[in-house]
Design brief:
By secondary structure, the protein is α/β, with parallel strands linked by helices. About 45% of the residues lie in helices and about 15% in strands. The chain folds into two domains: about 110 residues, AF0625-like (Rossmann fold, 3-Layer(aba) Sandwich); about 160 residues, 3-Layer(aba) Sandwich (Rossmann fold). The chain has nine helices and eight strands. α2 runs parallel beside α3 and α5 runs antiparallel to α6.
Length: about 270
């Protein structure tokens, strides 16, 4: 695969640039991108070092710099090096400026201001850590979302992704022969969602999990027939309780979370 260099220059954390760059790159096949992330870029001296690196590894330059002097320095340097240089936020800022009838304030890192939304996200992350894998069932009714499902159906990574979006998320495993905590059946506030996957995929994931733990003995945990029974019983439980079910077999954590957020918004509208 052809190797390309992508320089991401930001006056903040660089998360926005990385997300946008990766979202675009997945549309191209057989490309091996080498990311160079330059975060918290706020002085000309920093730009001198960045331009020196771009000269050594020429490639596409994407930036989010709101300071006009820094922008000019970067654009002028890239023009001299004959590499493309793109401000990814300009079209969005221009659209908002025209729609709102006002100029942007050009404040670097403004999206990371310590506002209420930021503290809500921290609170959600703390809650989710404390209520991972069935812990502290007495606090489940304080959740926004409760995920249930058999082992290895991406409950934990999905929970933390949702927490990063500011949603307090607990997850509870469905384990054969062990009843769910009674608190799960008396919830009146959170949205409860069941996560499932295909037995074949689940068997392979569990085998890989055991191998990573250097466990080589075959157990019911990876037996396909037992897993099929687990998945069927979990589905029956969710259907009986009226909990929506999401099959994560062919979904990334981000896609699963997006569907859960859609369900949550409807749930919130209908119940509050």
């Amino acid at each position: 695969m052809p190797e390309i260099h992508v320089h991401l220059v930001s006056d903040s954390t660089g998360e926005t640039l990385q997300s946008m760059s990766r979202a675009a790159l997945v549309q191209f096949e057989k490309v091996d991108p080498k990311e160079h992330v330059w975060s918290m870029t706020r002085t000309v001296r920093q730009l001198d070092d960045i331009l020196d690196s771009i000269n050594k590894n020429p490639g596409l330059v994407l930036f989010t710099l709101v300071n006009k002097d820094l922008r000019r320095t970067l654009e002028k340097g890239c023009k001299k090096l004959k590499v493309p240089c793109v401000s990814v936020l300009d079209p969005v800022l221009m659209a908002y400026s025209g729609y709102l009838g006002q100029e942007s304030r050009n404040l670097p890192g403004r999206q990371h201001t310590l506002n209420q939304e930021y503290f809500d996200r921290i609170e959600a992350l703390n809650y989710t850590m404390a209520h991972d894998d069935g812990q502290m069932p007495d606090g489940l009714n304080d959740a926004d979302i409760v995920l249930v499902g058999v082992s290895r159906t991406s409950k934990t990574p999905t929970s933390f992704y949702l927490a990063h979006r500011g949603l307090k998320t607990a997850n509870v495993p469905i384990v054969p022969a062990i009843p769910l905590p009674e608190q799960v059946f008396t919830l009146n506030k959170p949205l409860v969602v069941g996560l499932t996957t295909s037995p074949d995929r689940l068997s392979q994931i569990r085998k890989n999990r055991l191998l990573s733990l250097k466990e080589t003995h075959e157990t019911d945990y990876v037996d396909k027939d037992r897993i099929k029974e687990e998945v069927i019983e979990a589905r029956k439980l969710c259907t009986k309780k009226g909990w929506p079910i999401i099959d994560v077999s062919r979904r990334s954590v981000e896609e699963t979370a997006a569907q859960i957020i859609t369900l949550f918004n409807t749930h919130r509208k209908d119940h509050f």
